[in-house]
Design goal:
Layout: H1 2-13, H2 16-42, H3 47-52, H4 64-105, H5 109-122, H6 130-139, H7 146-169, H8 174-182, H9 187-198, H10 200-216, H11 219-224, H12 233-244, H13 248-283
Helix pairs in contact: 2-13, 4-7, 4-10, 4-12, 4-13, 5-7, 7-10, 7-13, 8-9, 10-13, 12-13
Length: about 280
């Protein structure tokens, strides 16, 4: 009887407003997910079926489209993107966490100026800085190398990473630092043994956001890299499309493989992403 009363109360609390919100979220989810579902299904169709049976399932599931796409160039683009993304993420986490550690521990006018400078970096539009960046990288002979992308991605992702990490670091109790100092722990020891282990959620959040940006960035990857052997997935797919011309099944298979790593990353780390952003915003 008690369970029936509780369920009735829950039903009563679920009013008309909640119903519309739920329906709206379901419609939004369908709008977002259906193109991905269509891409996966169409990636295993033949050329004729893509045009003659657009919305249906394939009569024969051509899984070999993925092997063809991998052999025709996706493999090299995938490896290039993996290298650029990994170096970018590691650098952003290390540099950003050390900078955030300093900004969280000390209170001076110089720190305030540094925060204003970092916020200004978040406002820099990539299109505005494109020509100056190209000139700088050309003078350093970094154009048409992976380092042109890595250094650019690091500079664009560091401001957000520093602000997120600093907001989280500010929530760490000062008593822990004082106890560590009494025990003879150095500044770097406090950073490595206290701040980093206690900040895993926000660090994972930074990893996810940085990975998503570096993996999918298109503008710099197209302009700074000329060699087809060095292209990452976003810019490489353009050549992949031109090379395949009308082989849409193989092209869609390549798109599925290029999107899969980030989709899986978000699925497995979404709880840490939400937790890191919410705790950092509240505690900071």
């Amino acid at each position: 009887m008690g369970n029936l009363v509780k369920s009735t109360r829950r039903y009563q609390r679920f009013g008309l407003g909640e119903l519309f919100i739920t329906i709206g979220l379901i419609v939004y989810a369908v709008i977002i997910l259906y193109p991905l579902f269509w891409m996966v299904i169409s990636s295993m169709k033949s050329y004729k079926e893509i045009y003659n049976n657009v919305w249906g399932f394939p009569s024969t599931w051509l899984v070999e489209n993925y092997a063809t796409a991998w052999s025709k160039g996706i493999s090299s683009y995938f490896v290039n993107s993996l290298f650029v993304t990994a170096i970018t993420v590691i650098s952003v986490v290390l540099i950003g966490s050390m900078a955030a550690f300093v900004l969280a521990r000390y209170r001076t006018k110089l720190i305030d100026f540094a925060l204003i400078f970092i916020i200004g970096g978040m406002m820099m539009n990539p299109e505005v800085a494109l020509i100056p960046l190209f000139n700088i990288l050309s003078s350093l002979e970094l154009i048409n190398t992976h380092w042109a992308l890595i250094f650019t991605y690091i500079s664009y992702r560091l401001p957000l990473a520093v602000l997120l990490l600093r907001a989280y670091f500010l929530s760490i109790p000062r008593e822990l630092e004082e106890s560590a100092i009494i025990d003879g722990c150095s500044e770097f020891g406090i950073y490595r043994r206290i701040y980093l282990p206690m900040s895993v959620p926000i660090i994972i959040t930074v990893i996810v956001l940085t990975s998503y940006y570096a993996w999918n960035e298109f503008l710099f990857a197209t302009i700074f890299i000329e060699s087809n052997d060095l292209k990452t997935i976003p810019s490489g797919l353009m050549n992949f499309r031109d090379a395949l011309r009308t082989d849409w099944g193989v092209l869609l298979a390549g798109m599925v493989m290029s999107a899969a790593p980030m989709v899986l990353l978000l699925i497995f780390l979404q709880k840490y992403l939400v937790r890191g952003l919410s705790e950092g915003s509240v505690k900071g």
